[in-house]
Amino acid sequence: MITVSRMLNRGRSRAERVRAWLVAAGAAVATFLVCTAVRLADFEDEGGSLTGLALALLAVPVAGLVHQANRLASATRERRLAALRLAGAAPGDVRWLGALEGGVLALVGSSGGGVIYVLTHLSGPLLPVPVVVALVTLGGGVSGARAGRHVVASPLGVVRRARVRGPRVRDLILFGAGVGLFVLGAVVKGGFPFVGKYGSGVVMAAGLVLLLFGVTLAATWVVRACARRVGRRARLAEALLAARLVEADPRAWARALSVVSLTVFFGAMAGAQQAMVGYWQAHALVDVALLVALVTSAVALVVHQAEELIDLRRSFSALAASGVPESSLSGVLVRQAVIAASPVCVVAAVSGVAVVVVTTLDVYQVQWLGWAAGRAVVMAGVGVLAAVLVALAARPLLRGALSTDVRA
Predict the structure, then answer these.
(1) How many CB atoms lie within 10 A of CB 396?
(2) pLDDT of residue 180
(3) Which of 9, 181, 231, 390 is the most buried (most CB within 10 A)?
(4) Among 134-138, 261-265, 337-341, 345-349, which stretch is predicted with the lowest mean pLDDT?
(5) Burial of residue 123, with CB atoms counted within 10 A of its CB: 0-12 exposed, 13-18 middle, 19 or more buried
(6) Residue 380: band (very low, low, confident or very high) from pLDDT cuts 50, 70, 90
């Protein structure tokens, strides 16, 4: 299997090599962030712990970027693997090769990130490094295997098997469970039997994890509702087409915007904390990390935009052939970004502020809500603006998709 993977990698195009470097770089950044977070978590002061927690959580958007890059690479990678199907390889063999490629890229990137951490933190703990490298490598392998599950390689070519899924009730259940556990830990606090405050911390941490996934998945309901409303009131063909495209697959947009929503969530949460406590230096580091996460979010959105254009290039080419100008199709992409990003960013910003307020309900003062609300509005606006800028920057991708389909 390794020999076959090496042989196939010799035929990679320039775009595939760029995506491979993107996966490796993402794995390196994630490894460095998590290792640094573990080191800062050992500090006694709250500022160091806050910064460490922020760095650990910001590894999540980087992991989302890695998975998006793997999804985009799946179609082009399996064009090379179609020849193996002709030789008798099963679809499972193709997915195993995807897992192997994703795991190797993650191993190379995480090893590089671990080396950078060791060189920059010679006095820090080195034991977590191999553990983090192993976890990131495992994640890369799983992502590589799952990224190709919707792509079918056959001797006759490659087909993207779309599995469009709308909102599901279990998404709301996940969100509700996260809110319930978090509120339970915040209210009971040290009243847990036998474990006391540690039980409260574990319950709140579990609730926060469920809440993060719940906000991402439950946003599908809000995205679909917003798209339906815009579609009913649309007066322009571009707005109607954009709304119908988002409504047809709201889960894909919620998944793609999960990286942005996490950044908005952490930014709003940090703003609510800044209003009530000090540690401005630590919060400044968190804000810098949020800017890095926002750049990562933008890159992840570019990857999603490229993936969507691969799926829609025939439809867009038909519209272009019928006389629709390229600027109008670009306007559809921008309106899609606004329709999908606006509700996702608003929900994420409100959830981030709510987490802090609920946790400190007994000490949080009303005058602090002004700063927290302002910071939440800014973060939501920045998230929507990032999605719009990515859509505007995707015009060369749109032009390339149209020209590729015309040549085909």
Answers:
(1) 8
(2) 83
(3) 390
(4) 261-265
(5) exposed
(6) very high
Q: What is the CA radius of gyration of the chain?
A: 22
User: How many angstroms separate the CA atoms of 288 and 54, rounded?
Assistant: 11
List beta partners, residue 151. 160
* Run of H or E including 353: helix 326-359
Dihedral Cα 249, 167, 296, 352, nearest 10 deg: 150
DSSP code of residue 191: G
What residues does 160 pair with on adjacent strands?
Answer: 151
Q: Residues 241, 340: one domain?
A: yes
Cα–Cα distances in angstroms (integers) from residue 344 to residues 86, 249, 299, 375, in the given order: 44, 15, 18, 16
Q: With respect to residue 310, please indicate whether it lies within any of the assigned structural domains.
A: yes
User: Which is higher by pLDDT, 249 or 243?
Assistant: 243
Rounded CA-CA distance 345/363 in Å is 27
Inform me whether the pLDDT recorded for 377 exceeds 90. Answer: yes
- Does residue 222 form part of some domain? no
Range of the domain at 24: 1-161
- As for how many domains the chain has, the answer is 2
Q: For all residues of the chain together, what is the average pLDDT? A: 75
Which amino acid, one-letter code, is at 383? G
Per residue in 204-243, pLDDT (tens digit) is 778 877 877 787 778 888 899 999 999 999 888 889 999 9
Distance of CA 22 to the CA centre of its chain: 14
Residue 219 lies in a domain: no
